[in-house]
Write a structure and sequence with these properties.
By secondary structure, the protein is mainly α. It has one domain. About 70% of the residues lie in helices and about 0% in strands. A hairpin with a 2-residue loop joins strand 1 and strand 2 (about 170-175). Helix 4 runs antiparallel to helix 5 (about 95-115).
């Protein structure tokens, strides 16, 4: 790892990486721990803020422009911001199943898969993590990242099918008592 390259990146890229990596760790914590308690709500609010910051800072990074200064990653940023709003609205109206489904999708589609593609040869993070690579090593890395992204996508699709099949209880999925009972 070549951390010295990290400090040479523009401040907005450093901030974006910090928000994204912190979101990745907190998201894993959220997926593994019990849901619905005060800690879940506090960590969840922090995660939403970090994900929003990750998405918003991306609009100031223009490494792969296609339409003006914007590229495909900016479409994902809009989707992430919209998903965050939808997930918060869902949990506020008591629709825990929809909230859960959106949050899991945001974690996979908004962090894991794009994160894997930041490691490809020629990208800043790929250079920081792997250093300079010869052509053979670059090909192997591309194949490994493609395989990892495919595995994540398959696991995601399998879990999405399970999330869709959550039974309803009393008109709500996984009914969690709210402030009024």
């Amino acid at each position: 790892m070549q951390f010295s390259l990290l400090f040479g990146l523009p401040p907005v890229v450093q901030a974006h990486l910090t928000f994204a990596l912190t979101s990745l760790v907190l998201g894993a914590v959220m997926l593994l721990r019990p849901k619905g308690d005060v800690r879940h709500k506090v960590i969840g609010r922090l995660w939403v803020a970090l994900m929003a910051a990750t998405a918003l800072t991306s609009f100031f990074i223009h490494s792969m422009p296609m339409v003006g200064p914007f590229g495909p990653i900016h479409i994902l940023s809009v989707i992430v911001l919209s998903g965050l709003v939808s997930a918060v609205r869902a949990v506020r109206r008591g629709d825990v199943a929809v909230h859960r489904k959106i949050m899991v999708r945001l974690y996979v589609v908004g962090l894991i898969i794009p994160g894997l593609f930041t490691l490809v040869p020629g990208r800043d993070l790929g250079e920081i993590v792997f250093g300079p690579l010869d052509a053979r090593a670059q090909t192997i890395l591309w194949l490994m990242i493609g395989l990892a992204a495919s595995i994540v996508a398959v696991l995601y699709l399998r879990s999405a099918a399970k999330l869709t099949a959550i039974p309803l209880q009393g008109g709500r999925a996984d009914a969690v008592p709210g402030p009024h009972g």
